[in-house]
Amino acid sequence: MERRMSGVGALSLHKILCVGHVCVDMINICSSYPEEDSKIGTTTKTNRCLDQRWQRGGNASNNCTVLGLLGAKPTFFGTIADSPEKRFLLEDFAKFDVNTDYAVIHEGCDCPASCIILSAATGSRTIVHANKNLPEVSVEDFDKIDLSPFKWVHFEGRNVPNVTKMIDRIRQHNKNLRDGIPVTISVEIEKAKPELESLISLPDVLFVSKDYAMYKGYRSMQETLEKVQAQAFPKAVVICPWGEEGASASSSDGNLVHSPAFPPVQVIDTLGAGDTFNAATIFSLSSGRSLKDSITFGCRIAGLKVGVAGWEALRKFAMDGAFSLLENSVEKSNVISVA
To answer: Do residues 299 and 261 make contact, with C-beta atoms less than 8 angstroms apart?
Structure first.
């Protein structure tokens, strides 16, 4: 099994690096969630398949998509199988202005895939994911990246041993800087996996999902922030989105801020809503906005996302200038600093 870098181009405009997973999402949109042992077609009466589509998925991949729509010029760092799906993935990244020069291509592997059922009745999504044999990125792959153009590196919470070493590499990079801006590190803790707890103390900005909080027995955003802040990196910011209740965040000085959710008139597609919130919040923080304004911006963009199907519909908001209007409506405040 051969591994190769897909080429390294000029990265001067690519300020945010997202590290993690990409896969193919095979999406089935049904009138309602199907009953067990039932058959759903385009002409069935009690339930109907309204549409099917392929979509590029994966948390870090989705983060890049939203950042690209916002104009951040993101770079994706992860593995891609040298399979028939590779062309679809790379072309779709390019459609959203995502740089893939540092993607690691693995020969002899299958592309990870998710089979997804979206319920038109409720907007819910049910995901069945499989990754047969595609490896994760390694710290040796990460060592080939020139960190100097990047203002921010965001890690999807997975591949813990290698991510831990990658974060250490960034800390060393920041320590050795004579001039320039240190790289801000963020990590998403999403899934209910005990090994992710070791990542809590590492980043400057930590995103903690409601699923992980509930797994730990935390009953609210405030309790989650209090518990996690005690374990976090010194001066770290902890952010906790909580679905329809919005999001809250805290800093090491005890400052606690909150944003309500901004739901659409009708929930259409919740797939990628959390990734949208994280990416929009990162975009706002990296632009120098305050913590409160940034999570509010994240909630607003996530609200737009769940009101449309897929990413192409979200692109229209970007083309119409809605993202800029939202982003420019908040006041700049430099609240994120790297130790």
So the answer is: yes
- Among residues 115, 83, 116, 99, the alpha carbon closest in space to that of 17 is found at 99
Q: What is the DSSP string of 244-287?
A: GG-EEEEETT--EEEE-----SS----TTHHHHHHHHHHHHHHT
Alpha carbons 282 and 188: distance in angstroms, whole number: 11
Sequence-ordered list of residues with C-beta below 8 angstroms from that of 135, at least 6 positions apart, any chain? 3, 79, 106, 109
pLDDT digits over 47-103, tens only? 999 999 999 999 999 999 999 999 899 999 999 999 999 999 999 999 999 999 999
Per-residue pLDDT reduced to its tens digit, 265-286: 999 889 999 999 999 999 999 9
DSSP code of residue 181: P
d(CA 56, CA 89): 6
Measure CA of the first residue to CA of the last residue in the chain; give whole Å: 40
Phi and psi at residue 257, to the nearest 5°: -130, 160
Output phi, psi for 176, to 5 deg: -90, -5
Pairing of strands 113-119, 74-77: unpaired
Tell the residue number behind the tokens 């589509």, with chain if given.
53
pLDDT 10s digits, 225-234: 999 999 999 9
Q: What is the pLDDT of residue 4?
A: 39
For 191, the 3-state DSSP assignment is coil
Whole-number Å distance between alpha carbons of 163 and 248: 26
Q: CB burial class (10 A; 0-12, 13-18, 19+) of residue 182?
A: middle
The pTM of this model reads 0.90
Q: How far are the Cα atoms of 9, 140, 183, 223, 277 from residue 205, in angstroms, in the given order?
A: 28, 24, 12, 18, 14
